[in-house]
Specification:
The protein is mainly alpha-helical. The protein has a single domain, classed as NCX, central ion-binding region (A middle domain of Talin 1, Up-down Bundle). It contains eleven helices and four strands. The strands form two sheets. Strands 1-4 form a two-stranded antiparallel ribbon. The chain has a two-stranded antiparallel ribbon with strand order 2-3. Helix 1 crosses helix 7. The longest helix is centred in the middle third of the chain and has 35 residues. It is globular. It starts with a helix and ends with a helix. The relative contact order is 0.21.
C-alpha cells in the first residue's frame, strides 16, 4: 500500500495536466450531458491543483521571494483567462465579470488567505511575526491599484455609469503595469530581504531573518525537474483556461436558476482559483513562515489587479459592450473596512489569533452580502 501511494504521489503531477488536456480536446466536441460536465469540472479542478503544484516546484528552485511571485502570477494567469473567456460569452453579467472577479480575489486574499494564515500560525505558535516594512509596502501597492482601477470609476464623469472612458481605461492599465513592475523590482532586487521570513523571540518581536537553509525541508529540485514542471505548468494553464470556457455556461445557468446576483459567478471563480493557494499559505504559516503566506496573499491581490485590468483593457479592443469596473456602495464599504483592519494588522509586524478571526469575519460578510446584497 505504501508503495502504491508513493507511486501516485510521483505520477499524478505529470498525469493530471495530460489528462486535463485530453478532456479538453474531447469536451470540445460536445459536453451537454451531466456526466460530461462532471468530468470537465473534475479535470478543471485537477488542472488548477496541478498548476499550483508545478508553480511551487519552480518556486522552490528559484527561492524566495521569487517563489511567492511565481505562484501568484501563475494563479493570476488562470484568473485572467477565466475572466476573458466569460466576457466573450456575452452573457447578461459580462460587463461586470472583470470587476466582480477581481474584487472577489482581493477580498479573498486580503481577508481569507491572510485570516487563515494568521489564525493557523498563531494557534500553533501563539504569536506570528513578519516584516512590517515589506508587508506594508505590498499593502500600500494593493490599495493604490484597487483605488485607481476599482474605486475611481464610480466617481469619474467621462464614462457612462461606473465605466472608464477609453483614455481613462488606458491610463489605468499603464499605471497598473507600472506600479506592479515597480513593486516586483523592489521585492526581488532592491529590497529583497524585506520579504523573507523573520525569526522572532517569545513575544513575537522580530530578531532577524529566518535561516531557510536549515529548516528541515527537502533541497530544491534539480534543474531537469524544474524545467519539466515549468512545461507542465504551461500545459496546466492552457487546460484550465480551455476547460473554464466549456464549464462557464453551466456556472452561469446555476446562478441564474438559483436567482442569485450575477456577481456570485465572480465569487465562485475566485474561490475556485484561490483554494490551492490558500492551502499553501496555511502550510507556510504552520511552519512559522507567515511572511511567505502574506507574500502570497498580497502578491496575488496585486497581480489580480495589476495584470488583469491591463489584459482586459487590451481585450476591449475586440470585445463589444460596456466594461463596468467601479465598485458598488456595499463593495466600497467592505473594501474600506478591509483597508482599515489590514493597516492595524501589519502595523506592529506581529499578530495573534484574534486578528485572523477579524479578517475571516470580514470575508464571511463579503460572501454573505454577495449572495444577499
Amino acid at each position: 500500500m505504501a508503495s502504491l501511494l508513493a507511486q501516485v504521489r510521483t505520477r499524478w503531477p505529470v498525469a493530471t495536466p495530460v489528462a486535463a488536456l485530453l478532456v479538453l480536446g474531447a469536451g470540445s466536441f460536445g459536453h451537454d450531458h451531466w456526466a460530461a460536465l462532471v468530468v470537465l469540472a473534475v479535470a478543471l479542478i485537477g488542472g488548477i491543483v496541478a498548476a499550483v503544484h508545478h508553480a511551487e516546484v519552480v518556486a522552490h528552485k528559484v527561492g524566495e521571494p521569487f517563489g511567492s511571485l511565481i505562484l501568484a502570477v501563475a494563479v493570476t494567469v488562470i484568473e485572467v483567462g477565466l475572466i476573458v473567456m466569460l466576457m466573450t460569452s456575452g452573457g447578461a453579467g459580462s460587463s461586470t465579470y472583470a470587476r466582480d472577479t477581481v474584487f472577489a480575489a482581493v477580498m479573498i486574499t486580503l481577508n481569507g488567505i491572510v485570516g487563515l494564515a494568521l489564525l493557523a500560525g498563531a494557534l500553533k505558535h501563539n504569536l506570528v511575526s513578519f516584516n512590517a516594512a515589506g508587508t506594508g509596502s505590498a499593502v500600500a501597492t494593493v490599495i493604490t491599484l484597487a483605488g485607481v482601477c476599482l474605486v475611481l470609476p464610480s466617481f469619474t464623469t467621462s464614462g457612462a455609469g461606473r465605466e472608464y472612458s477609453p483614455s481613462q481605461l488606458g491610463f489605468a492599465a499603464v499605471a497598473s503595469l507600472g506600479l506592479y513592475g515597480a513593486f516586483v523590482f523592489t521585492q526581488t532586487i532592491r529590497h529583497r530581504d524585506f520579504f523573507l521570513p523573520v525569526a522572532s523571540d517569545e513575544r513575537g518581536r522580530a530578531t532577524g531573518l529566518l535561516d531557510l537553509d536549515q529548516d528541515g525541508h527537502p533541497d530544491p529540485p534539480e534543474a531537469r525537474q524544474a524545467w519539466l514542471s515549468l512545461g507542465l505548468l504551461v500545459a496546466s494553464l492552457v487546460a484550465v483556461v480551455g476547460l473554464a470556457k466549456l464549464v462557464s455556461p453551466t456556472i452561469e445557468d446555476v446562478v441564474r436558476d438559483l436567482d442569485l446576483p450575477y456577481g456570485v459567478v465572480g465569487v465562485v471563480i475566485a474561490l475556485l482559483i484561490l483554494a490551492p493557494e490558500s492551502i499553501a499559505a496555511v502550510r507556510n504559516a504552520a511552519r512559522n513562515r507567515v511572511q511567505l503566506s502574506l507574500n502570497l496573499a498580497y502578491g496575488s491581490a496585486m497581480a489580480s489587479i495589476g495584470l488583469t485590468i491591463p489584459t482586459v483593457a487590451v481585450a476591449m479592443i475586440w470585445l463589444t459592450g460596456p466594461l463596468e469596473l467601479g465598485l458598488e456602495p456595499t463593495q466600497m464599504v467592505l473594501f474600506l473596512l478591509t483597508v482599515v483592519i489590514t493597516a492595524f494588522t501589519i502595523l506592529q509586524g506581529r499578530a495573534y489569533a484574534l486578528q485572523g478571526v477579524v479578517h475571516l469575519t470580514l470575508l464571511a460578510a463579503f460572501l454573505f452580502f454577495s449572495v444577499q446584497p
